[in-house]
Amino acid sequence: xxERISFDYAPxxxxxxxxxxxxxxxxxxxxxxxxxxxxARVHLDEAxxxxxxxxxxxxxxxxxIRRHLDAIVRICAAAPDAGPVAALGPRERxxxxxxxxxxxxxxxxxxVGLCEDPAAALDHLxxxxxxxx
Length: 133
Known about the structure:
Mean pLDDT: 92
Radius of gyration: 15 Å
Number of helices: 4
Number of domains: 1
Order of helices and strands: EEEHHHEEH
Number of strands: 5
Strand content: 15-25%
Helix content: 25-40%
């Protein structure tokens, strides 16, 4: 039987109106120290977002939210064009990403799990929490 290793993960939420506490699952970020793995998957369901916040400007606000979600993926990947946070080590990037904030894009509480393959665990959690492929 393959060795199971621990990982940490946190859901990514879009909260268009923070004062109403309404949210939309938009992704997952996962870290596995044993495999030096840090990655995120995101998807913005624009129809559900418009249902939660019909006042959003589709051309400006939705595009800005999409760019910020994509930045999470690029920060995890340490993309050179993702800014100074992406230049940090994996541990620092993880802690920066999961730090509490009250903005439109929020990273939920950190959870732990066991897996054999962190990439497969990320796919499974993304399907389970966001439900989009």
